[in-house]
């Protein structure tokens, strides 16, 4: 065997081995003749190779996988607690002298806001995401604790305790209200509309001063109230929120507070009235006070007549009594500085005053034959005179004649001759009767009998 034959055998053996192993791309590329097989078979192999390359795409996915993973979210889970712990630690360090040493563990994840709390020797330190870290202590803390601490309506503190207030008092703000303390009053909370009204009056610095009770509710008409050193504040959905104090408050309480006919106040007390007086409006009337008259209520038709004549600034002035009822015919009356007002069903309310009033009262008021007034006094008559109508007659006055009543048949003759404008003029006496049942009016020089016949 020559070397060429040996070479041929070697090449054949290599070809067989390579055939058994499958076509290799490196050898398939130089094949010059088998174009179709090279295109078909290697095409699959050549396609398979890039396919394997394409399968590397998951490497990109593996790289992309961390991208959506919320690394900050993973650290955000403990953020509230971490923030609370940090805030509590910082506050404890800055206010160590106020707090003293810790006496209990740090508690986080509390109800009522997910806050933190820790007890110290001298105070309680609290934190919530909405309020930050603040401490509370002493009587204010005790009042807060009695109202369910941070789980109650007061919630978390929004300030530390602050002192140096009027009367050596202290206060503290909470999410649901305030708590104030003074040596004379102990600690009491204020909330909502009552707190707002108190603040608007100057809080503890002004006339109401410190609260002497907590707010109390469940009153008539879903109302609430609170006592203060210098008065009270009452609130209801129908009346709003208003303070009461002093003599006006005294008159209101004498008439059964909000449960009485006056109901709730609908205004604050207002002062600067005539004669240095003050007043206040209520659902069922008003109360007025002056230094010379004390406090008295006015209401209904009598109040209407009073206000129609200028209230305290008019000739009637301030009331000097409360309204009194149970009079003849179911009537009521009220005394004023400048006169009186009387009312009875069906007649409305009318004032009486001066000399005309004197004649009326001299004839037994509403119980006498004149009965109730049916008009107010009217003036501007002849010679500067005035008159007033009553159920049982009339009373006339002039500067020259004083006041006298006229009634019945004598009145009919007088009115038939032109009243005070006629030849008879004003009466100069009251009607007077004799034992024989005859009557005479000296001013008219007439005699009448009870049956009304004129002589």
State the main characteristics:
rod-shaped, four-stranded antiparallel beta sheet, 29% helix, alpha+beta, disordered N terminus, 455 residues, 27% strand, disordered C terminus
Describe the model.
The chain is an alpha+beta fold. Among the domains are: 40 residues; 104 residues, no CATH class; 85 residues, no CATH class. It is 29% helix and 27% strand. The chain is built from 13 helices and 27 strands. The strands form seven sheets. It has a four-stranded antiparallel β-sheet. The chain is rod-shaped. The termini are far apart.
Give me the secondary-structure topology:
Blueprint: H1 3-21, H2 25-28, H3 35-54, H4 57-64, H5 71-76, H6 79-94, H7 96-99, E1 107-108, E2 116-119, E3 124-128, E4 132-136, H8 138-146, E5 162-165, E6 169-174, E7 177-182, E8 186-190, H9 192-200, E9 216-219, E10 223-228, E11 231-236, E12 240-244, H10 246-254, E13 270-271, E14 278-282, E15 285-290, E16 294-298, H11 300-308, E17 324-325, E18 332-336, E19 339-344, E20 348-352, H12 354-362, E21 378-379, E22 386-390, E23 393-398, E24 402-406, H13 408-416, E25 432-433, E26 438-441, E27 446-449
Antiparallel strand pairs: 1-2, 2-3, 3-4, 5-6, 6-7, 7-8, 9-10, 10-11, 11-12, 13-14, 14-15, 15-16, 17-18, 18-19, 19-20, 21-22, 22-23, 23-24, 25-26, 26-27
Summed up:
The protein has helices at residues 3-21, 25-28, 35-54, 57-64, 71-76, 79-94, 96-99, 138-146, 192-200, 246-254, 300-308, 354-362, 408-416, and strands at residues 107-108, 116-119, 124-128, 132-136, 162-165, 169-174, 177-182, 186-190, 216-219, 223-228, 231-236, 240-244, 270-271, 278-282, 285-290, 294-298, 324-325, 332-336, 339-344, 348-352, 378-379, 386-390, 393-398, 402-406, 432-433, 438-441, 446-449.
């Amino acid at each position: 065997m020559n070397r060429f034959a040996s070479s041929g055998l070697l090449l054949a053996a290599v070809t067989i081995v390579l055939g058994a192993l499958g076509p290799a791309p490196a050898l398939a590329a130089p094949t010059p003749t088998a174009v179709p097989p090279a295109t078909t078979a290697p095409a699959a192999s050549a396609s398979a190779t890039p396919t394997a390359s394409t399968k590397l795409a998951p490497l990109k996915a593996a790289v992309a996988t961390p991208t959506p993973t919320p690394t900050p979210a993973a650290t955000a889970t403990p953020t509230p607690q971490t923030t609370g712990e940090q805030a509590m630690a910082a506050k404890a360090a800055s206010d160590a002298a106020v707090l003293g040493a810790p006496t209990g563990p740090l508690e986080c994840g509390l109800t009522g806001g997910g806050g933190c709390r820790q007890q110290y020797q001298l105070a309680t330190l609290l934190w919530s995401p909405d309020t930050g870290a603040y401490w509370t202590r002493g009587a204010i803390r005790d009042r807060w604790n009695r109202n369910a601490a941070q789980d109650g309506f007061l919630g978390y503190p929004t300030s530390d305790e602050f002192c140096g207030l009027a009367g050596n008092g202290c206060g503290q703000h909470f999410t649901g209200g305030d708590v104030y303390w003074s040596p004379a009053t102990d600690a009491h909370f204020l909330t909502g509309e009552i707190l707002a009204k108190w603040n608007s009056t100057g809080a503890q610095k002004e006339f109401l001063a410190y609260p002497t009770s907590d707010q109390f509710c469940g009153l008539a008409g879903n109302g609430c109230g609170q006592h203060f050193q210098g008065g009270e504040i009452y609130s209801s959905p129908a009346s709003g929120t208003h303070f009461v104090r002093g003599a006006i408050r005294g008159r209101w309480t004498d008439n059964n507070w909000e449960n009485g006919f006056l109901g709730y106040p609908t205004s604050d007390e207002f002062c600067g009235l005539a004669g240095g007086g003050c007043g206040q409006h209520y659902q069922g009337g008003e109360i007025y006070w002056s230094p010379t008259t004390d406090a008295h209520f006015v209401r209904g038709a009598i109040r209407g007549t009073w206000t129609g004549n200028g209230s305290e600034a008019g000739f009637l002035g301030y009331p000097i009594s409360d309204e009194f009822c149970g009079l003849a015919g179911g009537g009521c009356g009220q005394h004023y500085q400048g006169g009186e007002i009387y009312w009875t069903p069906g007649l409305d309310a009318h004032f009486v005053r001066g000399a005309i009033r004197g004649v009326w009262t001299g004839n037994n008021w509403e119980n006498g034959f004149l009965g109730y007034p049916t008009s107010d006094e009217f003036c501007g008559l002849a010679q500067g005179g005035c008159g007033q109508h009553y159920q049982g007659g009339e009373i006339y006055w002039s500067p020259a004649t004083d006041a006298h009543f006229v009634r019945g048949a004598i009145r009919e003759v007088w009115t038939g001759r032109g009243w005070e404008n006629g030849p008879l003029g004003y009466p100069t006496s009251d009607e007077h009767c004799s034992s024989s049942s005859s009557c005479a009016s000296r001013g008219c020089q007439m005699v009448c009998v009870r049956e009304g016949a004129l002589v």
